[in-house]
Specification:
Length: 424
Amino acid sequence: MATMGTNIPAGAIDATPGHQTGQRFALVALTSLFFMWGFITCLNDILIPHLKAVFDLNYAQAMLVQFCFFGAYFLVSLPAGKLVGKIGYQRGIVVGLTVAVVGCLLFIPAARMQVYAVFLFALFVLAAGITVLQVSANPYVTALGSESTAASRLTMTQAFNSLGTTVAPFFGAFLILSVASVAGEQMTAADHASAVELPYLILASALAVLAVVFAKLKLPTIDSHLDSASDLTAGQKGHALQHTHLLLGAIAIFVYVGAEVSIGSFLVNFLSQDSIAGISEKQAAFYVSLYWGGAMVGRFIGAVVMQYLPAGKVLAACSLGACALLALTIMGSGSVAMWAVLSVGLCNSVMFPTIFSLALARLGGLTSQGSGILCLAIVGGALLPVVQGLLADQIGIQLAFALPILCYLYILFYGVRGHRVQES
Protein backbone atom coordinates (compact mmCIF):
# COMPACT_ATOMS: atom_id res chain seq x y z
CA MET A 1 0.00 0.00 0.00
CA ALA A 2 1.34 3.42 -0.95
CA THR A 3 1.63 6.08 1.71
CA MET A 4 2.57 9.75 1.71
CA GLY A 5 6.15 10.15 0.58
CA THR A 6 6.07 7.11 -1.72
CA ASN A 7 6.03 7.13 -5.48
CA ILE A 8 2.67 6.77 -7.22
CA PRO A 9 1.87 6.48 -10.91
CA ALA A 10 0.13 9.41 -12.56
CA GLY A 11 -3.62 8.99 -12.57
CA ALA A 12 -3.76 6.38 -9.80
CA ILE A 13 -6.41 8.11 -7.79
CA ASP A 14 -8.44 5.28 -6.31
CA ALA A 15 -6.30 2.18 -6.21
CA THR A 16 -6.06 2.14 -2.40
CA PRO A 17 -7.19 4.27 0.54
CA GLY A 18 -3.53 5.17 1.07
CA HIS A 19 -3.31 6.66 -2.41
CA GLN A 20 -6.45 8.68 -1.89
CA THR A 21 -5.34 10.00 1.49
CA GLY A 22 -1.92 11.01 0.21
CA GLN A 23 -3.33 12.75 -2.83
CA ARG A 24 -6.02 14.60 -0.87
CA PHE A 25 -3.43 15.81 1.62
CA ALA A 26 -1.16 16.97 -1.22
CA LEU A 27 -4.02 18.90 -2.84
CA VAL A 28 -4.86 20.60 0.45
CA ALA A 29 -1.23 21.62 0.95
CA LEU A 30 -0.95 22.92 -2.62
CA THR A 31 -3.94 25.25 -2.22
CA SER A 32 -1.82 27.48 0.04
CA LEU A 33 0.64 27.99 -2.81
CA PHE A 34 -2.09 28.87 -5.29
CA PHE A 35 -3.44 31.41 -2.80
CA MET A 36 -0.04 33.03 -2.24
CA TRP A 37 0.99 33.48 -5.86
CA GLY A 38 -2.46 34.78 -6.74
CA PHE A 39 -2.16 37.30 -3.91
CA ILE A 40 1.31 38.43 -5.02
CA THR A 41 0.35 38.69 -8.71
CA CYS A 42 -2.77 40.75 -8.04
CA LEU A 43 -0.90 43.09 -5.73
CA ASN A 44 0.73 44.42 -8.90
CA ASP A 45 -2.63 45.97 -9.83
CA ILE A 46 -2.31 48.17 -6.74
CA LEU A 47 1.42 48.72 -7.14
CA ILE A 48 1.01 50.06 -10.71
CA PRO A 49 -1.09 53.17 -9.93
CA HIS A 50 1.00 53.80 -6.80
CA LEU A 51 4.33 53.76 -8.63
CA LYS A 52 2.77 55.64 -11.56
CA ALA A 53 2.01 58.50 -9.19
CA VAL A 54 5.29 58.32 -7.24
CA PHE A 55 7.53 58.38 -10.34
CA ASP A 56 5.19 60.40 -12.60
CA LEU A 57 4.95 57.66 -15.27
CA ASN A 58 2.78 57.39 -18.37
CA TYR A 59 0.69 54.25 -18.93
CA ALA A 60 3.30 52.44 -21.01
CA GLN A 61 6.02 53.11 -18.43
CA ALA A 62 3.76 51.99 -15.57
CA MET A 63 3.09 48.71 -17.39
CA LEU A 64 6.79 47.89 -17.10
CA VAL A 65 5.75 46.50 -13.70
CA GLN A 66 3.89 43.72 -15.49
CA PHE A 67 6.58 43.48 -18.16
CA CYS A 68 9.28 42.68 -15.61
CA PHE A 69 7.04 40.48 -13.48
CA PHE A 70 5.71 38.31 -16.30
CA GLY A 71 8.91 38.62 -18.29
CA ALA A 72 10.45 36.37 -15.66
CA TYR A 73 8.16 33.58 -16.85
CA PHE A 74 9.70 33.81 -20.30
CA LEU A 75 13.28 33.59 -19.04
CA VAL A 76 12.81 31.18 -16.15
CA SER A 77 10.08 28.72 -17.24
CA LEU A 78 12.15 26.37 -19.41
CA PRO A 79 15.09 26.17 -16.95
CA ALA A 80 12.51 25.66 -14.19
CA GLY A 81 10.90 22.82 -16.17
CA LYS A 82 14.28 21.08 -16.47
CA LEU A 83 15.01 21.66 -12.79
CA VAL A 84 11.66 20.25 -11.68
CA GLY A 85 12.12 17.26 -14.00
CA LYS A 86 15.34 16.43 -12.12
CA ILE A 87 14.52 17.27 -8.49
CA GLY A 88 10.77 16.62 -8.44
CA TYR A 89 7.74 18.77 -7.74
CA GLN A 90 8.14 19.11 -3.98
CA ARG A 91 11.75 20.28 -4.02
CA GLY A 92 10.88 22.58 -6.90
CA ILE A 93 8.22 24.16 -4.70
CA VAL A 94 10.76 24.80 -1.93
CA VAL A 95 13.21 26.38 -4.39
CA GLY A 96 10.46 28.60 -5.82
CA LEU A 97 9.36 29.78 -2.38
CA THR A 98 12.94 30.59 -1.37
CA VAL A 99 13.57 32.70 -4.47
CA ALA A 100 10.25 34.50 -3.92
CA VAL A 101 11.31 35.40 -0.36
CA VAL A 102 14.44 37.06 -1.74
CA GLY A 103 12.34 39.01 -4.26
CA CYS A 104 10.03 40.34 -1.53
CA LEU A 105 12.96 41.42 0.63
CA LEU A 106 14.45 43.36 -2.30
CA PHE A 107 11.51 45.79 -2.05
CA ILE A 108 13.05 47.24 1.10
CA PRO A 109 16.23 48.58 -0.58
CA ALA A 110 14.14 49.52 -3.62
CA ALA A 111 11.92 51.74 -1.48
CA ARG A 112 14.85 53.33 0.32
CA MET A 113 16.79 54.00 -2.89
CA GLN A 114 13.66 55.43 -4.60
CA VAL A 115 14.72 54.06 -7.98
CA TYR A 116 12.03 52.68 -10.29
CA ALA A 117 14.48 50.26 -11.93
CA VAL A 118 15.25 48.64 -8.56
CA PHE A 119 11.54 48.09 -7.98
CA LEU A 120 11.38 46.39 -11.37
CA PHE A 121 14.35 44.16 -10.52
CA ALA A 122 12.72 43.14 -7.23
CA LEU A 123 9.56 42.23 -9.13
CA PHE A 124 11.59 40.16 -11.59
CA VAL A 125 13.24 38.12 -8.82
CA LEU A 126 9.92 37.65 -7.04
CA ALA A 127 8.30 36.48 -10.27
CA ALA A 128 11.18 34.07 -10.93
CA GLY A 129 10.26 32.31 -7.71
CA ILE A 130 6.57 32.29 -8.61
CA THR A 131 7.49 30.80 -12.00
CA VAL A 132 9.20 27.83 -10.38
CA LEU A 133 6.13 27.39 -8.18
CA GLN A 134 3.85 27.41 -11.22
CA VAL A 135 5.98 24.88 -13.10
CA SER A 136 5.98 22.62 -10.04
CA ALA A 137 2.45 22.92 -8.71
CA ASN A 138 0.22 23.05 -11.82
CA PRO A 139 1.28 19.71 -13.36
CA TYR A 140 1.41 18.16 -9.89
CA VAL A 141 -2.28 18.93 -9.42
CA THR A 142 -3.19 17.52 -12.85
CA ALA A 143 -1.31 14.30 -12.02
CA LEU A 144 -2.90 13.74 -8.61
CA GLY A 145 -5.91 11.93 -10.00
CA SER A 146 -7.53 10.74 -13.20
CA GLU A 147 -6.89 12.61 -16.45
CA SER A 148 -10.62 12.95 -17.13
CA THR A 149 -11.10 15.18 -14.06
CA ALA A 150 -7.78 17.06 -14.31
CA ALA A 151 -9.43 20.28 -15.54
CA SER A 152 -11.97 20.19 -12.73
CA ARG A 153 -9.28 19.49 -10.13
CA LEU A 154 -6.98 22.26 -11.33
CA THR A 155 -9.93 24.64 -11.53
CA MET A 156 -10.72 23.95 -7.87
CA THR A 157 -7.16 24.67 -6.71
CA GLN A 158 -7.05 27.74 -8.96
CA ALA A 159 -10.14 28.96 -7.11
CA PHE A 160 -7.90 29.46 -4.09
CA ASN A 161 -5.53 31.33 -6.39
CA SER A 162 -8.47 33.63 -7.10
CA LEU A 163 -9.17 33.95 -3.38
CA GLY A 164 -5.67 35.41 -3.11
CA THR A 165 -6.34 37.82 -5.98
CA THR A 166 -9.60 38.86 -4.30
CA VAL A 167 -7.99 39.62 -0.93
CA ALA A 168 -4.88 41.35 -2.32
CA PRO A 169 -6.58 44.61 -3.44
CA PHE A 170 -7.92 45.21 0.09
CA PHE A 171 -4.47 44.52 1.54
CA GLY A 172 -2.79 46.80 -1.00
CA ALA A 173 -5.37 49.57 -0.67
CA PHE A 174 -5.03 49.59 3.12
CA LEU A 175 -1.22 49.48 3.29
CA ILE A 176 -0.20 51.23 0.04
CA LEU A 177 -2.86 53.42 -1.60
CA SER A 178 -4.25 54.70 1.70
CA VAL A 179 -0.89 56.41 2.38
CA ALA A 180 -1.46 58.83 -0.48
CA SER A 181 -5.13 59.43 0.23
CA VAL A 182 -4.61 60.11 3.95
CA ALA A 183 -1.41 62.13 3.87
CA GLY A 184 -1.95 63.92 0.61
CA GLU A 185 0.67 66.43 -0.45
CA GLN A 186 2.40 66.41 2.95
CA MET A 187 4.08 63.10 2.09
CA THR A 188 7.37 63.15 0.22
CA ALA A 189 8.25 60.82 -2.65
CA ALA A 190 10.40 58.84 -0.22
CA ASP A 191 7.45 58.40 2.15
CA HIS A 192 5.23 57.18 -0.69
CA ALA A 193 7.90 54.76 -1.92
CA SER A 194 8.41 53.36 1.59
CA ALA A 195 4.73 52.41 1.76
CA VAL A 196 5.56 49.14 -0.02
CA GLU A 197 8.09 47.98 2.60
CA LEU A 198 5.68 46.57 5.18
CA PRO A 199 3.42 44.69 2.71
CA TYR A 200 6.32 42.89 1.07
CA LEU A 201 8.05 42.19 4.39
CA ILE A 202 4.85 40.47 5.53
CA LEU A 203 4.78 38.48 2.29
CA ALA A 204 8.44 37.47 2.70
CA SER A 205 7.68 36.12 6.18
CA ALA A 206 4.67 34.14 4.98
CA LEU A 207 6.58 32.65 2.06
CA ALA A 208 9.49 31.69 4.30
CA VAL A 209 7.12 29.81 6.60
CA LEU A 210 5.66 27.96 3.62
CA ALA A 211 9.15 27.05 2.38
CA VAL A 212 9.96 25.45 5.73
CA VAL A 213 6.61 23.62 5.80
CA PHE A 214 7.00 22.18 2.29
CA ALA A 215 10.59 21.15 3.03
CA LYS A 216 9.29 19.04 5.94
CA LEU A 217 6.17 17.58 4.33
CA LYS A 218 6.13 14.06 2.84
CA LEU A 219 4.12 14.31 -0.36
CA PRO A 220 3.46 11.72 -3.09
CA THR A 221 5.76 11.79 -6.12
CA ILE A 222 4.68 11.04 -9.69
CA ASP A 223 6.97 8.43 -11.23
CA SER A 224 5.95 8.93 -14.86
CA HIS A 225 6.63 12.68 -14.69
CA LEU A 226 10.15 12.48 -13.29
CA ASP A 227 13.38 12.71 -15.26
CA SER A 228 11.59 14.07 -18.33
CA ALA A 229 14.55 16.37 -18.94
CA SER A 230 16.86 13.34 -19.09
CA ASP A 231 14.53 11.57 -21.48
CA LEU A 232 14.54 14.59 -23.76
CA THR A 233 18.31 14.82 -23.70
CA ALA A 234 18.57 11.18 -24.70
CA GLY A 235 16.17 11.78 -27.57
CA GLN A 236 13.77 9.10 -26.30
CA LYS A 237 10.54 11.08 -26.33
CA GLY A 238 10.95 13.89 -28.81
CA HIS A 239 9.80 17.38 -27.87
CA ALA A 240 6.58 18.43 -26.18
CA LEU A 241 5.95 21.06 -28.88
CA GLN A 242 5.50 18.25 -31.41
CA HIS A 243 2.07 17.86 -29.81
CA THR A 244 -0.15 20.38 -31.59
CA HIS A 245 -2.62 20.73 -28.73
CA LEU A 246 0.24 21.82 -26.45
CA LEU A 247 1.57 24.35 -28.97
CA LEU A 248 -1.87 25.87 -29.50
CA GLY A 249 -2.45 25.72 -25.76
CA ALA A 250 0.73 27.72 -25.14
CA ILE A 251 -0.58 30.43 -27.47
CA ALA A 252 -3.90 30.33 -25.61
CA ILE A 253 -2.10 30.77 -22.27
CA PHE A 254 -0.14 33.69 -23.78
CA VAL A 255 -3.22 35.60 -24.91
CA TYR A 256 -5.31 34.67 -21.87
CA VAL A 257 -2.80 35.86 -19.28
CA GLY A 258 -2.12 38.94 -21.39
CA ALA A 259 -5.81 39.79 -21.53
CA GLU A 260 -6.51 39.08 -17.86
CA VAL A 261 -3.50 41.05 -16.63
CA SER A 262 -4.13 43.94 -19.04
CA ILE A 263 -7.68 44.35 -17.80
CA GLY A 264 -6.72 44.12 -14.13
CA SER A 265 -3.81 46.53 -14.58
CA PHE A 266 -6.03 49.27 -16.01
CA LEU A 267 -9.02 48.89 -13.69
CA VAL A 268 -7.97 51.45 -11.06
CA ASN A 269 -7.22 54.14 -13.65
CA PHE A 270 -10.25 53.21 -15.79
CA LEU A 271 -12.74 53.33 -12.91
CA SER A 272 -11.23 56.61 -11.68
CA GLN A 273 -12.27 58.36 -14.91
CA ASP A 274 -15.17 60.79 -14.58
CA SER A 275 -17.04 59.18 -17.50
CA ILE A 276 -16.98 55.77 -15.80
CA ALA A 277 -17.21 55.88 -11.99
CA GLY A 278 -15.24 59.01 -11.01
CA ILE A 279 -13.97 57.46 -7.77
CA SER A 280 -10.63 57.66 -5.95
CA GLU A 281 -7.88 55.11 -6.50
CA LYS A 282 -8.41 53.67 -3.03
CA GLN A 283 -12.13 53.21 -3.73
CA ALA A 284 -11.35 51.70 -7.13
CA ALA A 285 -9.16 49.08 -5.44
CA PHE A 286 -12.31 47.64 -3.87
CA TYR A 287 -13.81 47.09 -7.31
CA VAL A 288 -10.59 45.45 -8.49
CA SER A 289 -11.27 42.81 -5.83
CA LEU A 290 -14.69 42.22 -7.42
CA TYR A 291 -13.01 41.55 -10.77
CA TRP A 292 -10.79 38.90 -9.22
CA GLY A 293 -13.54 37.74 -6.89
CA GLY A 294 -15.67 36.91 -9.92
CA ALA A 295 -12.90 34.60 -11.08
CA MET A 296 -12.90 32.90 -7.69
CA VAL A 297 -16.66 32.30 -7.68
CA GLY A 298 -16.56 31.11 -11.29
CA ARG A 299 -13.81 28.61 -10.53
CA PHE A 300 -15.76 26.99 -7.72
CA ILE A 301 -18.76 26.75 -10.03
CA GLY A 302 -16.64 25.60 -12.96
CA ALA A 303 -15.03 22.82 -10.91
CA VAL A 304 -18.50 21.31 -10.50
CA VAL A 305 -19.80 22.09 -14.00
CA MET A 306 -16.81 20.46 -15.71
CA GLN A 307 -17.59 17.20 -13.94
CA TYR A 308 -20.56 16.99 -16.33
CA LEU A 309 -19.71 19.15 -19.38
CA PRO A 310 -16.67 18.93 -21.69
CA ALA A 311 -13.98 21.38 -20.64
CA GLY A 312 -13.56 22.68 -24.21
CA LYS A 313 -17.20 23.71 -24.47
CA VAL A 314 -17.11 25.50 -21.12
CA LEU A 315 -13.96 27.34 -22.24
CA ALA A 316 -15.61 28.42 -25.51
CA ALA A 317 -18.73 29.70 -23.73
CA CYS A 318 -16.69 31.75 -21.28
CA SER A 319 -14.60 33.32 -24.05
CA LEU A 320 -17.77 34.38 -25.89
CA GLY A 321 -19.07 35.97 -22.71
CA ALA A 322 -15.82 37.89 -22.22
CA CYS A 323 -15.98 39.28 -25.78
CA ALA A 324 -19.55 40.50 -25.28
CA LEU A 325 -18.74 42.16 -21.95
CA LEU A 326 -15.68 43.94 -23.34
CA ALA A 327 -17.76 45.24 -26.24
CA LEU A 328 -20.08 46.81 -23.66
CA THR A 329 -17.04 48.21 -21.83
CA ILE A 330 -15.88 49.98 -24.98
CA MET A 331 -19.26 51.25 -26.17
CA GLY A 332 -20.81 52.01 -22.78
CA SER A 333 -20.19 54.54 -20.04
CA GLY A 334 -20.88 54.98 -16.37
CA SER A 335 -22.15 51.94 -14.46
CA VAL A 336 -22.74 49.94 -17.67
CA ALA A 337 -19.07 50.07 -18.67
CA MET A 338 -17.93 49.62 -15.08
CA TRP A 339 -19.93 46.47 -14.35
CA ALA A 340 -19.28 45.04 -17.80
CA VAL A 341 -15.50 45.12 -17.38
CA LEU A 342 -15.70 43.83 -13.80
CA SER A 343 -17.87 40.91 -14.95
CA VAL A 344 -15.14 39.74 -17.32
CA GLY A 345 -13.52 38.27 -14.21
CA LEU A 346 -16.34 35.73 -13.97
CA CYS A 347 -15.69 34.64 -17.56
CA ASN A 348 -11.96 34.41 -16.88
CA SER A 349 -12.54 31.99 -14.04
CA VAL A 350 -12.04 28.62 -15.71
CA MET A 351 -9.78 29.70 -18.56
CA PHE A 352 -6.26 29.25 -17.18
CA PRO A 353 -6.77 25.89 -15.43
CA THR A 354 -8.83 24.55 -18.34
CA ILE A 355 -6.32 25.57 -21.01
CA PHE A 356 -3.45 24.28 -18.86
CA SER A 357 -4.98 20.86 -18.25
CA LEU A 358 -6.17 20.42 -21.85
CA ALA A 359 -2.71 21.33 -23.15
CA LEU A 360 -0.96 18.81 -20.86
CA ALA A 361 -3.29 15.94 -21.76
CA ARG A 362 -1.47 12.71 -22.72
CA LEU A 363 2.04 14.15 -22.52
CA GLY A 364 3.28 11.51 -20.06
CA GLY A 365 7.02 11.88 -19.51
CA LEU A 366 6.97 15.19 -21.36
CA THR A 367 4.64 16.75 -18.79
CA SER A 368 7.34 18.69 -16.89
CA GLN A 369 8.67 20.12 -20.14
CA GLY A 370 5.15 20.89 -21.32
CA SER A 371 4.44 22.67 -18.05
CA GLY A 372 7.59 24.75 -18.52
CA ILE A 373 6.47 25.72 -22.03
CA LEU A 374 3.02 26.73 -20.79
CA CYS A 375 4.50 28.79 -17.97
CA LEU A 376 6.85 30.40 -20.49
CA ALA A 377 3.74 31.46 -22.40
CA ILE A 378 2.62 33.41 -19.31
CA VAL A 379 4.98 36.07 -20.73
CA GLY A 380 1.82 37.32 -22.41
CA GLY A 381 1.22 39.08 -19.11
CA ALA A 382 4.43 41.01 -19.70
CA LEU A 383 3.93 42.00 -23.33
CA LEU A 384 0.22 42.62 -23.88
CA PRO A 385 -0.26 45.09 -20.98
CA VAL A 386 2.55 47.20 -22.45
CA VAL A 387 0.86 47.06 -25.86
CA GLN A 388 -2.43 48.08 -24.27
CA GLY A 389 -0.58 50.85 -22.42
CA LEU A 390 0.73 52.18 -25.71
CA LEU A 391 -2.79 52.02 -27.15
CA ALA A 392 -4.19 53.82 -24.10
CA ASP A 393 -1.65 56.62 -24.51
CA GLN A 394 -2.65 56.99 -28.18
CA ILE A 395 -6.40 56.30 -28.42
CA GLY A 396 -7.58 56.38 -24.82
CA ILE A 397 -7.89 53.83 -22.05
CA GLN A 398 -11.44 52.78 -23.01
CA LEU A 399 -10.84 51.98 -26.68
CA ALA A 400 -7.67 50.11 -25.73
CA PHE A 401 -9.86 47.31 -24.32
CA ALA A 402 -10.27 46.14 -27.93
CA LEU A 403 -6.97 44.28 -27.55
CA PRO A 404 -8.31 41.75 -25.00
CA ILE A 405 -11.26 41.02 -27.32
CA LEU A 406 -8.83 39.67 -29.92
CA CYS A 407 -7.27 37.49 -27.24
CA TYR A 408 -10.58 35.95 -26.21
CA LEU A 409 -11.46 35.22 -29.83
CA TYR A 410 -8.40 32.98 -30.07
CA ILE A 411 -9.37 31.25 -26.81
CA LEU A 412 -12.77 30.57 -28.39
CA PHE A 413 -10.97 28.75 -31.21
CA TYR A 414 -8.93 26.71 -28.75
CA GLY A 415 -12.01 25.69 -26.81
CA VAL A 416 -13.89 24.63 -29.93
CA ARG A 417 -11.12 22.93 -31.88
CA GLY A 418 -7.51 23.71 -30.95
CA HIS A 419 -7.42 21.58 -27.77
CA ARG A 420 -8.13 18.29 -29.52
CA VAL A 421 -5.33 15.74 -29.18
CA GLN A 422 -4.13 14.50 -32.54
CA GLU A 423 -3.34 10.81 -32.48
CA SER A 424 0.11 10.00 -33.89
